[in-house]
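Sharing a chain and its predicted structure for anyone who wants a worked example. Both blocks are below, sequence first, tokens second.
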Amino acid sequence: MPRCFSRYFEVHVDHSYWIGGRDDVIEGTWQWASSNRIFNFTSWARGKPNNHDGNEDCFEMDINHHFEWNDQDCLHTQYFVCELNHSQMRNYLRLMKTLTAKCINQEPPAKKPRFKELPSKEEIEKLALARTEPRTNQQTVWGVKLLRGWLTENKYSSSFEELDETILNDRLCYFYASLLTKQGTDYSKSALVGIRSAISRHITGPPYNREINIITDKSFMPSNHVITGKLSPRCTAFFQQALQYPKPTIWYAAQPIGKNKLASMMSRISEEAGLSIRYTNHCLRATVATGLKKSGSR
């Protein structure tokens, strides 16, 4: 290839290009694919063609060899060069001139923004709620509804979210102690823990975002003692290790049960009880979920 031609490609082009030659008809006899005419000019790179792996029957102007020719696998995907006669070239240049003029006169397209528009406060709150499990949201609504109902029945304002910690703790003490199911029975400790968690999620989430913890903060220890009962007041964990020698008011130690021991609880109970089936904690969860669904709960 003339040096001026290859120099132009080196400056303005950054790809290799098919230029329509092949030797798949007779190996080693290169001809143009469009006319089947044998070449009367070649510009092979040094050491080319070499028919690497016996499967290089097409050739390219190779960017890695200063755009001299290189034989290549015909299935290789890349750009290509087309041949035009004088009439076709004039039409092509006329079209490119028209398109160039239109591009110059046309306003550049607006740059696509990298980020969304600033969301409103309400949209942020909806997004935060949407990223919480639906079942958790239902439990939160249920727990808050219970507290609002109790506050209204006892002539308090139903808006408790901004109450001072001392007042809120006092309200919760009486609330936990007054709770009854629809059947008139006391809630189990696990149910009370669930209600407390629901209220905690409500006041610490949007739009209130209070930086208090009604479960672990010392200012809420009195109300938590109403729930924990025989649990150790020196430990905030709900599952605590049982005392070897329980006291009349305290049955559990100030150390929480480890997660591994909790995870194997049902398996150990099954073995010690001599059950025919070895149950797991997940079995209990599935049984409760099935029972709730059959009862019509959502």
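Comments welcome. The CA atoms of residues 198 and 298 lie 16 Å apart.
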